[in-house]
Amino acid sequence: MPLSIKIIGFGSKKEMLNEEMERYIKLLNPYVKISLILLKSPSGNYNSRNDLLRREEKQMRDKWPKRSHPVALSEEGKMFDSISFSKWLSGHMMSGVTLLFNIGDAYGLSPVLKEKCREVISLSSLTLPYRLCHVVLIEQIYRAFTILKGHPYHK
């Protein structure tokens, strides 16, 4: 079974850089099935940041398919350049599982969710707004596939 990619995060399409995300998702159609799951931030009162992160963790984990390879995006994760990211992605291409990227909201991901993920990777050592992380991740996935296919997009 070929690779399937899901990206789980918080927000609504109207809050996101939707035009750019849709553009790269469309460009990815020949290479991979990719879907975006946007969750609503938990409503109601929470006692602390940790309480909010636990609620968000539950929402995200409820969306994890059974045969998935969950990956947390966090600034302290493993850094890749575009070539090494394409090789990493290539290593997952025929695994038959869903590659599942998890992007936290403004407070990031809970430590427990990061532990439950198989890997933690970083898009940058800079702190990026979560809305921008979605676009950067999708563009880098597209770039990785163009590298693997020898397409001139990656110069």
Description of the structure:
The structure is a single chain. The mean pLDDT is 89. This protein has one domain (4-149): Alpha/beta knot (3-Layer(aba) Sandwich), CATH 3.40.1280.10. 39% of the residues lie in helices and 23% in strands. With 155 residues, the chain is α/β, with parallel strands linked by helices.
H and E string: EHEHEHEHEH
Structural class: alpha/beta
Total helical elements: 5
Number of strands: 5
CATH fold node name: Alpha/beta knot
Question: Biggest sheet, open or closed, and with what strands and sense?
Answer: 5 strands, parallel
Distance between the first and last residues' Cα: 30 Å
Layout of secondary structure:
Elements: E1 4-10, H1 18-28, E2 33-39, H2 49-61, E3 68-79, H3 82-92, E4 98-102, H4 111-116, E5 119-122, H5 130-149
Parallel strand pairs: 1-2, 1-4, 3-4, 3-5
Helix pairs in contact: 1-5, 3-5
List keywords for this structure.
155 residues, Alpha/beta knot, 5 strands, alpha/beta, 5-stranded parallel sheet
Summarize the structure.
This protein has one domain (4-149): SPOUT methyltransferase, trefoil knot domain (Alpha/beta knot), CATH 3.40.1280.10. It contains five helices and five strands. It has helices at residues 18-28, 49-61, 82-92, 111-116, 130-149, and strands spanning 4-10, 33-39, 68-79, 98-102, 119-122.
